[in-house]
Amino acid sequence: MRAPLLIYAFQIVVAGAVGLHSTVRILEGGAIYHGVVVALALGACALLVVAIRERHRRVLILLAQALLACGILLSFRWRPLWVFFSVSSLSLLITGALLFGGRARRLAAACLLGSVLLCLLALAEPVAGRMAGGDDLFREEYERLNPAVEIAATFEPDPRTTSALEPGARIRHRSVIAGEDRVEFDVTYQIGPDRARVVPGRPRLGQKWFIFGGSFTYGSGVDDEDTIPARIQAAVPSRQVYNFGVNGYGSADVLLDLRRRTANATAVELCAYLMIDDHVRRVACPDQLTRIRWGKLKPRFSLQAGGLKYEGKASETLSLLGRLNVDLLNRWSLYRLLFDRWSIDADALKLTERVIRDMSARCSEMNGTSFALVILPRNSRLGDISGLLNRLQSDGIPVLDLRNRYRQLLEEEGAGDEAYFFLNNHPRPNLNRKIAEWTVDFLRRTAGR
Hints:
The chain is of the alpha/beta class. It has helices spanning 2-27, 32-51, 57-74, 79-100, 105-131, 215-218, 228-235, 251-262, 278-284, 287-290, 320-327, 333-339, 346-365, 386-394, 403-413, 429-447, and strands at residues 138-144, 155-156, 164-165, 170-177, 182-190, 208-213, 240-245, 268-275, 299-304, 307-313, 370-375, 399-401. It has two domains: 2-131, no CATH class; 138-447, 3-Layer(aba) Sandwich (Rossmann fold). The strands form four sheets. Strands 7-6-8-11-12 form a five-stranded parallel sheet, sandwiched between helices. Strands 1-4-5 form a three-stranded antiparallel sheet, with no helix packed on it. Strands 2-3 form a two-stranded antiparallel ribbon. Helix 1 runs antiparallel to helix 4 and helix 9 (278-284) crosses helix 13 (346-365). The chain starts with a helix and ends with a helix. Mean pLDDT is 78; it is low at 148-154.
């Protein structure tokens, strides 16, 4: 009986250590996932302690095996824990075989089969991660060029929007293609004192054009002079063009930022929102998005009878089931691949429509400020937003949809998306120049209304 007792002792010690580690993570503000890990590890530990003296060892061992199996499932992407749960599971099978001999063969065979299936699922996890978009084809590197700035990615927390740009930041951003050690881009971002990307060539005087958006507008992967707002500035040298794009922003962020930027601004002739279809998802804040670090910080709005209501940050407004989905199930790539796909629905479109209407209404409150909506091309589609655009246009909101122009460009040149998009799915400088060419006349006409 010494061998089973030694195995018991091994499992109890390691399970206690895992439970203690996860408890520390919870106290440090970790996800609910760590609480479940604590429960599984300590639950198995308690069952094993009782099993040492109890007669019903077979039942207790079976329950402990079930807990360890759940631990294997939940810790696929956390290698140290996965190893612990797997080793404990196999050692428990050995314990059962030594204790019960022939009477436990069926139980041991069933548990062994379950462990083999779990190991196969674990081997399939990296494949599912790549299919679900979990593995990168490139490696991104940030280098702080001015020591006074502490945040390497140029972001800092913001109480309402997803984040804000760090004023005065100067950042080098490189992307290296995985497996080839080839640099796809190596650029520098400069952030002005107004927490906005610098626009070279902007005059000190003139009517202001505020350009809002996400990372496409910000210019992820391109130098300051190659962003869309910078190319627009080059085409309208008499105007002051501002780049208020921020990585990760969606329509809700833009509404909050537009209200803030225009609160005390003067001589604003135009506010333009450069939108992609993924911004609808960022307004809806589904669990699939909230699992991402920056997705947890998204502002969440709800549609009330009196208009929009700001609920708070996405992670702060999750239901209990939502937290279980975000912190537990969504850690498993295979689950995300099979069960957690999200597509644009009617509720998300209604919410986005109201957000954009509020942007337009805010511009109407200002003296002589026009609003324009531009739909940027993407190398993938999340869903159909044509109905949303038609409703906005029918109510007099100027809309320019560039997606067909982009597809025509690809057909004329016989090119693929890779000619105009980086591996990180952001436009290359050549596409930004095209977008500015296609957009500037539309913005001129809109600003003259």
